[in-house]
Amino acid sequence: MFIRAYLRASTEEQDASRAQASLEQFACHHNKVIASVYLENASGASADRPELLRLLKDARKGDVLLVESIDRLSRLPVEDWQKLKAAIDSKGLRIVALDLPTSHQGMQDTKGDEFTGRMLGAINSMLVEMMAAIARKDYEQRRERQAQGIEKAKAAGKYQGRPMDTDLHKRVTELLTAGLGIRATARHANCSTTTVLRIRDQQSPPTSC
What we know:
Blueprint: E1 3-9, H1 20-29, E2 34-41, H2 50-58, E3 64-67, H3 70-73, H4 78-90, E4 94-97, H5 114-155, H6 166-177, H7 182-189, H8 193-203
Parallel strand pairs: 1-2, 1-3, 3-4
Helix pairs in contact: 6-7, 6-8, 7-8
């Protein structure tokens, strides 16, 4: 059995490795060792997550997909979640989440009472589905509240957008001026390529009519 830990943070500014110590402690408590760690900064509402896809490619039947919580794995709409869940099931992966006690049985070797194991597996599968639905609903509600807040601020003339990180802006500018490409600049500045492109476009002089 291989334990494959998946850690995700939504933005480049957040620390995706924050929960790694908790996952390692959990594995140790079950007399296991995490074999591989897959870490990325990406939205849980996006199906295009390179590290998660790499985990699925590497996985073998009986491996454990270990996460802090189901919302780290998915905030996907139902169609995309079903595709991801089908891919996980087809690889024979067992989902184990720290905050879902019924999933912890997945850390044990598959032996013993088959009936009990199947019953617990069915219950856990149902709870995983429920928590994935809750995670998506929470995502949609937060997005809705955010949009309402922005509209309210705009109406009051107070909305100024996200504050600019001047140090990052300066660093990206220096790297681009030095002739580095978009990806190399993002790597050296420890930010996303989208951020680099936005800063680059802000520097571009307006085109004449």
